[in-house]
Protein 1
Amino acid sequence: MKRKKKERQQLLIETLEKNPFITDEALAEMFDVSVQTIRLDRLELSIPEVRERIKHVAKERLDEIKALPLEEVIGEIIDLRLDQEAISIMDITEEHVFSRTGIARGHYLFAQANSLAVAIIDDELALTRKATIHFHRQVKAGERVVAKAIVTDSSAKQTVVEVTSKVNQEIVFHGEFMMYRSDSDTN
Amino acid sequence: MKRKKKERQQLLIETLEKNPFITDEALAEMFDVSVQTIRLDRLELSIPEVRERIKHVAKERLDEIKALPLEEVIGEIIDLRLDQEAISIMDITEEHVFSRTGIARGHYLFAQANSLAVAIIDDELALTRKATIHFHRQVKAGERVVAKAIVTDSSAKQTVVEVTSKVNQEIVFHGEFMMYRSDSDTN
DNA sequence: CCAGTCTTAGGACTAGGTACTAACATGTAG
DNA sequence: CTACATGTTAGTACCTAGTCCTAAGACTGG
């Protein structure tokens, strides 16, 4: 029976990590044990009751709201030919700009280009080693930035990706990214 | 008495918007009325009970988690001498890394450095014009990145900021940022 | 002064627990 | 086989933060 308990508790942890909103009663049904068993499990694992779990999630959110959001994958990739070419678009919103000037923060343009340079590489692991970048023109809220990446050199050691970002055909950003790939690296 | 009620209800709404975690009992004390009055107010205003309010906040957060966050001001500036030197720290967490490899995405390191280069400039408007950056070492979750920016050249036309980021004295990132400032630019 | 609004009080009930005691099943070691 | 440990289930009393409902005061304008 020992295995059963540990297994159940492991499952319990995983289940509540995915969805902290489940009551003991529902859990008891899920695992086909009594409510008391679930409570003992929670006690052993130091897992608080539903209401406390929910409160915890809610509090974390309130904290997060102060430290503002952005997308993880910056921009949306609309075309991708591995090791050749890729295109992504990013709409600049109020979140991306300096509130005083309305001009997009440089690191968002960099993030879009860098993300694209990583995405284009057909490998388990791609890392930026070096980059030379130019900001040609300011970008304002409401504008749509189209970034195009081209692999210009792909030796065994490293891959060079050139990224050009435009707003309405006008170049706003250009970067040359030296990328390392997992099958070529020592570091 | 009509004003008193409306006023209280308005205040109630505002109070709960700022902090949804307050119980009826605590509210009753705040407004110096009975708990029942608060409950009647909530009923009239269709405000759910604490536990439901908290649940709502928590659910919204779970939705947000899919569209991931990052800080607006990347890193925390701990020292700043305008046009001279500045230092910021950033703790790398799970949010900053590629889930497969645990290695921090390059644009976070860039964002920290770029933000610092912008902050160091004593001017209304500072923009990155060009940057040459090197990623010397991978940074993993749990590590603390300390970025130090130094203004190396400050002519009328442009300011050059060198940023060196370290983890435990070890250089992980270096960048040279050519910055334009508002009193020098045409664009 | 009386009606209508507002406020307060109290009782019965609920969900989702905690904390505790007690019974019982199962398995393993001596 | 007995004895003790581990695990499971059941039940009780109690808690918080409510809901829903009834009823009684308090205040105020006409």
Protein 2
Amino acid sequence: MSQSAPIARLVSDWFAANARDLPWREPGTTAWGVLVSEVMSQQTPVRRVEPVWREWMERWPTPADLAAEPTGEAIRAWGRLGYPRRALRLHAAAVAVAGDHDNVVPDTIAALEALPGIGTYTARAVAAFAHRQRHPVVDTNVRRVVARAVAGNPDAGMATTAADLRATETLLPDDAEAAAVASAALMELGALICTARAPVCARCPLADDCAWHAKGEALPEGPSRKPQKYTGTDRHVRGLIMAVLREADDPVARVALDTVWHEPDRRERALTGLVADGLVVEGAGGFRLP
DNA sequence: AAGGCGTGGTA
DNA sequence: TTACCAAGCCT
């Protein structure tokens, strides 16, 4: 492997021939559309995002359209994507863009990161993919690809660090447009080829330039991130409650929620948490979406 | 700064 | 079946 391997070019060429045709990659997608796709894709497989994203874009083509709705509509339209607080924050972001930015999605990292639910990754993704700026866009896929190809490690660390951003920035072409393409390509490579558990090095454009491949492709020993319990946790019960309220046209009485889980303490804790988070409100006839 | 936060698919 | 994983963010 060569020290100055043109990683960006190799991956970008591969991307040109192998990219999935995701709807938000189509020409003419607005910055708002890109932002929504990025938030929906946080911790959620892209396959499940597609239909929901299409519905949202048709229904709320600009931030102001969403901002004009009750937050509960965003939560309901979120469906089963998971982590519904993202819907809440996306609605809040829409309110902020409509109110503070003249309904135009900001194009600076600082302004983007100031929006609810927009962090290090999503801010740079929007700046790069929507505004075609040159920024390192580092998600779990990119971290894994860089960890393997450059550092020769089987996996990256648990969270994105400043060092990850610097390492990735180094790989990007100088040209902003080319850098944006390279970032999308690195993500796609991690999603389709350089996967966590079953990488397909035989079809990888970086195989000849990959430090990890050269060392024999030893798979990571433990989990890449902290294993999460789910069954019987508060999160589980919160999800059960939200599923009921999403389907309900009218407020739901407390007794009607008793059937979702057998332990009263956990039920109560879940419900209280949801109300505290603003995902549920208690009104006259019972509990409902805000 | 470690842990909380949904949901469904795959091996 | 259980365990891990999937375009993170917030506190």
Protein 3
Amino acid sequence: MPADPLSTTFAALADPTRRAILARLALGETSVTELGAPFQMTLPAISKHLKVLERAGLIERGRTAQWRPCRLDAGPLKEVAGWVESYRRFWDQRFDRLDDYLREVEGKAQPGTEPK
Amino acid sequence: MPADPLSTTFAALADPTRRAILARLALGETSVTELGAPFQMTLPAISKHLKVLERAGLIERGRTAQWRPCRLDAGPLKEVAGWVESYRRFWDQRFDRLDDYLREVEGKAQPGTEPK
DNA sequence: TCACTATTAAACCACCCAGTTAAATGACGC
DNA sequence: GCGTCATTTAACTGGGTGGTTTAATAGTGA
């Protein structure tokens, strides 16, 4: 239901098989069969994972003869990085005291869409 | 089923309501009722979202009287940032030519768990 | 104790997801 | 055209998820 791109990207990344596929594609374009080789899983399952990654815009697909090779498209990861970076100050120890200070000064503010 | 922490974190982030809750918590600790106020959703639904966030380690919960306030714990986001950063060179335009070069030199390597 | 507030639990629903097997599509080589 | 390889589709299953309503738990305060 939530069709927003960030949710789709996060959902696509929430599976270790799909993340492993992306890692393999980071080494270069390859075929579906070779992508599936490392996994104890049938090829239709791999094909479904690829469809999820494609809908999330994380891979692109070509058509060379009977092969439909995949290549990585890291565009959506840029938005993920941007989102997560906006929380950096919350895990970076160097800003812990600053956080306490800001929280003290600001008190309770109205809810916004993203922090900072 | 995939109980690995990174998958759990990504799955927790793959919902706009939960991301909005995190954004609200970035402004400071607050109660369940106040967290649910901006959403057209019943409180049990909010409570379930909080349980998902808690299992992912993204929030911590206290016990002050009848309130069980939530506060942000961005620890897992650090791992997310680390994972996504390993793909930075694939979306950063400045490295496009370098990518082509590396792909040419490396040819096909064996699949690893993460790139580079 | 009683009424009230804050929060969760239980039971239920519709739907999506990850996986399977079996069959279909499509391109190649002979 | 035929057999073969690469890939996808169809149909099905088990289990998780996001939401609801109703009811239970737990603390506060008179």
